Amino acid sequence: MINHPTARRARPNGWTVFTTEGVWRTLLMMAVFTWFLYENFTRVIGPAQDTEYSSWVHTLAAMYVISYAMMTISLLYLMVTPPGTVPKDWEPQEADIEPLAEDLQLRFCHACNCFQPPRAYHCKECDACILRREQHCSWFGCCIGFCNTKRFLLFLWNAACFLGFSHLFAGGWVWLHPILSNICYTSYGFPFDCYVLIPVGVLSFIIWVAFAILLGYQFTNITQNVTNPEQKKYAEMTKKAWEMQKQGQKNTVRVETAA
């Protein structure tokens, strides 16, 4: 059995693991998402309550608010949950080294001056060895590792749901023009007031696509039981093996031609 270390959960920046720039970027992101919520409620959901589609609107609006609340809660949990770093005083037992596979050989980090257990990698930005390091999130300014991967996935999922509802409401008056265009005309007298929903719908869709791609990539890694550094390593190994195989086929053809 491998002597796994107990993850160190220190928060280098006090109450949050995000950098100062990461906190400001997070506030900007939440301000944009709150703007989505406000515009959809004031220009679509509110006026639609007086129509024959009010029951559907009430149900979707409740799901919309719940997704926003869950996204906010998961983001707050992510902000206070460290990725999990290797304790400085952790040392492997002698019996733990031999059974390890070749790609999981125990390593020593000279930057942190400590042993690295399997699947731990050093992050230059965080200046620490992260247990089961997935990636360094440049937006938040922190690593995604053993202790906060679940929080990160929950945030991506809830944010993707919220953005999906945002696009559904904001883009609905374009995609469902016979329904929502009448709401705009009836409530405001002219459709110009609803034109603000165009940037909301477009922007929410673009961000949703980005979140969906990242979420799909993370779920793919989970199903394959690999991390992002391991995925890159395996891709490089596969490319190298393919090139060696291709080079071997060329050499075989040359030998046959010479013969």
List the helices and strands and how they pair.
Layout: H1 20-48, H2 54-80, E1 107-109, E2 114-116, E3 121-123, E4 128-130, E5 135-137, E6 142-144, H3 149-170, H4 172-175, H5 177-188, H6 197-224, H7 228-258
Antiparallel strand pairs: 1-2, 3-4, 5-6
Helix pairs in contact: 1-2, 1-3, 1-5, 2-3, 3-6
Task: Give the key terms.
single chain, 259 residues, mainly alpha, two-stranded antiparallel ribbon, two-stranded antiparallel sheet, 7 helices
Counted beta strands: 6
Helical residue percent band: 55-70%
Proportion of strand residues? 5-15%
Strand order of the largest sheet: 1-2
Kindly name the structural category: mainly alpha
Query: Kindly state the mean pLDDT as a whole number?
Result: 77
Largest sheet at a glance? 2 strands, antiparallel
| Integer-rounded radius of gyration | 25 Å
Parts with pLDDT < 50 across at least 5 consecutive residues = 184-192, 253-259
Q: Identify the overall geometry.
A: elongated
Distance between the termini: 54 Å
The arrangement of helices and strands along the chain is HHEEEEEEHHHHH
Tally of separate helices = 7
Q: Work out the oligomeric state of the chains in this entry.
A: single chain
